[in-house]
Amino acid sequence: MTEFAFRSLASDAEISPWLDHVVECFADKGTPRSYFERHWAMDPFRSLKGIRIATEQSTLSAAALPLTNGVIASSVRIYDRRVSLHGRVLGVGGIGEVSTKKAFRGKGLASALMNDALEYMKREGIPLAALHTSNPLTVAFYAKLGWISVPLYFYELSIDRQLLASAPKTQFDICAVPIANPTSNQSFDATEWHDIAQLHAHAVSTFSGSFVRLKHPEASIDADNAEYWRTWIAAEALERHTTYVLALYPATSAHQPNEKQPLLAYGIFHVRIHPKTQTALLVHARDFIVRSDASTDVSVLLALANEAASLWYGSHHQEPLPTVIVKVQQGLLQTNAASFPSLVQNLESIVDPGYMYKVVDGCAVANALRRPDLAVDSLEGVAMIEQQLAALMTSGNPQQHIFLEMDAY
């Protein structure tokens, strides 16, 4: 029986053969090398320690030789992230790039590597693990390993294009934010990106389940503190050539035309022809947050979605399709369709069970949940903590669980 050894990457020189490995493993999906290169280069919290690899035990006798793609049998990457729970910031390890070469599949490597990743998180003091998968079979696989599913719900608002375009919007000023801005503009404090980062930071402090994007949540927002915005978020948006970052402000007063108003909402929208119908434009809100004192989330969402659709049609020189389908996470929208009978024709709820969590440090998670009374020294105790975690993220408040998609890895 083949034995395997597990370790982290040892130096920057090992990044290239590791990239060769993941590209080979994801070849059937057609994932380009640039995807993995971007996820490494643009992650401000990247760590060589967070890339775990499995090699055949026999190859260790040649430890002095450089690592090559052929030596790596399997790998997983642990992304260093933080999540908000009850207003407290908790370290979380995001699982990604789970990959095993075809020649080594069926040998239990994936399970062994996931256990190794959890042991790594214990050593590094990371109390919670998270992952996302779109494959139902993989959801079942992780469930067998003790991961809990916290379903994420999406709404698809099917809206007549002409009605959407005619919706009143004189109370809003909408500007398209340059996607390259966060990485190139030196005056970060004076940009819409600063306002967006500030609104996001305030919003997620009141939610449970969303990622904290600032290095220092309690500090002022400057270019260094918002590095995650300037690199990861900007790179993910820029890579998608039909992505639009929109900032929405209250309409400028005629008495104070030069005074900048506080940001009311922002959205990051991915726009394309709907892959199923081919007769509607899909406007997918990958990030969408409205200031807490805004009157109606839906009207703000529709104003931003209409602007994203208009920008897409303008750049593609295509006649508008009759219908626009706005896709948004339930946790990002307090839906009140009854208030908009002329706009909302059909409301469809879509369930994604692929958002999964696993408790690594029961004491830390129990304290974050404000349940230090929960026993954590047994499997039953950990199970109770996981039940509390799932209940918190799927509670009656629809805005509890907002695992923003721009954080997906």
Protein architecture, described:
By secondary structure, the chain is of the alpha+beta class. The chain folds into 2 domains: 4-152 and 352-393, Gcn5-related N-acetyltransferase (GNAT) (Aminopeptidase, 3-Layer(aba) Sandwich); 154-351, Aminopeptidase. Helices cover 30% and strands 26% of the residues. The chain contains 11 helices and 14 strands. It has helices at residues 15-25, 33-41, 109-124, 136-144, 161-166, 181-184, 192-204, 227-239, 297-316, 362-368, 379-393; strands at residues 4-8, 51-56, 72-85, 88-100, 128-132, 148-149, 152-160, 172-176, 243-250, 265-273, 280-290, 323-329, 346-352, 355-359. The strands form 2 sheets. A 7-stranded mixed β-sheet has the order 1-2-3-4-5-14-6, sandwiched between helices. It has a 7-stranded mixed β-sheet with strand order 8-9-10-11-12-7-13, with helices on both faces. Strand 10 (265-273) and strand 11 (280-290) form a beta hairpin.
The biggest beta sheet reads: 7 strands, mixed
Tell me what portion of residues adopts beta-strand conformation.
Answer: 25-35%
CATH fold name of the largest domain: Aminopeptidase
Helix and strand pattern: EHHEEEHEHEEHEHHHEEEHEEEHH
Count structural domains. Answer: 2
GO molecular function: aminoglycoside N-acetyltransferase activity
Domain N-acetyltransferase: 4-170
Organism: Capsaspora owczarzaki (strain ATCC 30864)
InterPro entries: Acetyltransferase_Eis, Acyl_CoA_acyltransferase, GNAT_dom
